[in-house]
């Protein structure tokens, strides 16, 4: 089921939008010189929309919290000199007011703000009657409803140029990424809101330069509408997020190397081949479900048998064995054992439920 909010597609945002949409710029504005040199480099690489943090939400106090209002004259100068648009993060009505007063072209709501409905509502209230594009980052926690809620609040305030930014999710178990991409969440978002532009932020997902190309390509393969990437003329000297910023030249190389995929292809041979593979997938899925149905039938049988012999539903030793062997079998079948582990957690939960139902049936 798709859930429509009345919004404008990217091409009607009144900006010179590239396909895919590229927004690049420093994590934070630092000095007039840093902004000028960075924007100069980015314009040479064809970037038309610059991102720049003026107020920075930091995890710990007494770290650099953005230069604040003194950034606006520098931004204004860069806008005039390089004919670019600027996007800035806002986290309060005061930020919104100042950004609007200073001709900022796009606003974005950061991941920490999206996680707080009070903050989002305050921002939404301050945007009533304003016509500006607003991009909403996913909340730091993997909660799709919270992300959608933020979009709805901004939409209800009358904003119609709305985009979503996927910047990954906090996850203690992930040592590879700074924020786990959890692609299934933006995919679910895209399924529910196909008309809302979805932009990937590989910088905050990766946390380090080397990983950015693969994440950016993955986003384009998944048909994202654009990328927001952090770039600084001298990344190692950056005051925030130094490890994940790219030099403008390197951003240019990255953009040139990315492959944009077509959503529809006219070639009839390709279409019939695709159709045939999809039919085989449909048949395989039917077989998977038939096997699952058979498995649940056996589970019910075990439930009956346990009931007759007065044995508890949950047998930890048996479960341990299932949980250990299935990922092992998965490896032999060239399947990801982590995926199979997750799958069996769900199968096990359903099996317990089925057996409990059997027990209750006997009781009544
Ligand atoms: C940022 O874009 O610099 C930023 C603070 O990102 P996030 O809100 O995604 O952490
Ligand atoms: Mn940053």
Automatic annotation (TrEMBL):
Annotated Chorismate mutase domain residues: 268-359
Keyword vocabulary terms for this entry: Transferase
Record PROSITE patterns: CHORISMATE_MUT_2
Keyword Ribosomal protein: no
InterPro entries noted in UniProt: Aldolase_TIM, Chorismate_II_sf, Class-I_DAHP_synthase, CM_dom_sf, CM_II_prokaryot, DAHP1/KDSA
Family matches, as PANTHER family: PHOSPHO-2-DEHYDRO-3-DEOXYHEPTONATE ALDOLASE, PROTEIN AROA(G)
Name of the protein this chain belongs to: chorismate mutase
Organism: Rhodonellum psychrophilum GCM71 = DSM 17998
């Amino acid at each position: 089921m798709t859930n429509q909010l009345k919004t404008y597609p990217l091409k009607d945002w009144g900006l010179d939008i590239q396909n895919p949409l590229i927004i690049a710029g420093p994590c934070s504005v630092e000095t007039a010189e840093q902004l000028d040199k960075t924007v100069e480099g980015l314009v040479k690489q064809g970037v038309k929309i610059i991102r720049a943090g003026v107020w920075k939400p930091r995890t710990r106090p007494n770290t650099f919290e953005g230069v604040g209002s003194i950034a606006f004259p520098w931004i204004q100068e860069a806008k005039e000199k390089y004919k670019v648009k600027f996007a800035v993060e806002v986290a309060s009505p005061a930020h919104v007011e100042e950004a609007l007063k200073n001709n900022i072209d796009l606003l974005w709501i950061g991941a920490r703000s999206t996680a707080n409905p009070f903050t989002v509502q305050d921002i939404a209230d301050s945007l009533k009657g304003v016509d500006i594009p607003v991009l909403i980052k996913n909340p730091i926690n993997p909660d799709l409803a919270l992300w959608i809620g933020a979009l709805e609040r901004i939409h209800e305030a009358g904003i119609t140029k709305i985009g979503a930014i996927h910047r990954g999710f906090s996850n203690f178990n992930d040592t590879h990424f700074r924020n786990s991409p959890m692609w299934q969440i933006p995919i679910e978002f895209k399924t529910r809101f196909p008309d809302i532009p979805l932009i990937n932020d590989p910088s905050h997902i990766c946390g380090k330069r080397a990983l950015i190309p693969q994440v950016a390509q993955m986003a384009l393969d998944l048909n994202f509408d654009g990328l927001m990437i952090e770039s600084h003329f001298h990344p190692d000297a950056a005051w925030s997020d130094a490890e994940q910023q790219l030099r403008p030249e390197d951003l240019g190389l990255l953009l040139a190397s990315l492959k944009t995929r077509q959503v529809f292809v006219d070639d009839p041979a390709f279409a019939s081949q695709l159709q045939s593979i999809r039919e085989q997938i449909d048949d395989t899925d039917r077989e998977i479900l038939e096997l699952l149905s058979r498995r649940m039938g056996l589970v019910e049988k075990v439930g009956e048998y346990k009931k007759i012999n007065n044995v508890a539903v949950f047998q930890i030793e048996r479960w341990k064995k299932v949980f250990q062997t299935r990922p092992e079998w998965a490896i032999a079948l060239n399947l990801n054992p982590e995926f199979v582990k997750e799958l069996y957690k769900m199968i096990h939960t359903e099996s317990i439920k089925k057996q409990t139902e059997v027990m209750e049936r006997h009781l009544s």
